[in-house]
Amino acid sequence: MNDSLPVSAIVTHYNRSDLIGAAVESIRRQTAQPAETIIVDDASLPEHRDALRKYSPGARVIYLDKH
């Protein structure tokens, strides 16, 4: 049985690296997983952007330069 849904989970992020972990963990705890998880960073400060690197093995992280 395939537990992956044909959908993407997209999480937006802007200077809230303290909250992104809870959002990603919520996606990972779902019974059926999305086909992909995407985190879109909306030009956060460097320290918040750097914190997203730890999620890149299981999620695709897209960095925008301007909001």
Structural description of this entry:
By secondary structure, this protein is α/β, with parallel strands linked by helices. Helix content is 27%, strand content 37%. The chain is built from two helices and three strands; from the N terminus they run βαβαβ. The chain has helices at residues 17-28, 46-51; strands at 4-13, 33-42, 60-64. Strands 1-2-3 form a three-stranded parallel β-sheet, with helices on one face. Helix 2 links the parallel strand 2 (33-42) and strand 3 (60-64). The longest helix is centred in the middle third of the chain and has 12 residues, at 17-28. It is elongated and about 35 Å long.
Please describe the structure with a list of short key phrases separated by commas or semicolons.
single chain, 67 residues, alpha/beta, three-stranded parallel beta sheet, 2 helices, 37% strand, elongated
Strand and helix order? EHEHE
Count all strands and give the number.
3
Strands across the major sheet, in which order?
1-2-3
Given as residue ranges, the uncertain stretches (5+ residues, pLDDT < 50) are none
Structural Rg: 12 Å
Shape: elongated
N- to C-terminal distance: 41 Å
Instruction: Please summarize the sheet with the most strands.
Output: 3 strands, parallel
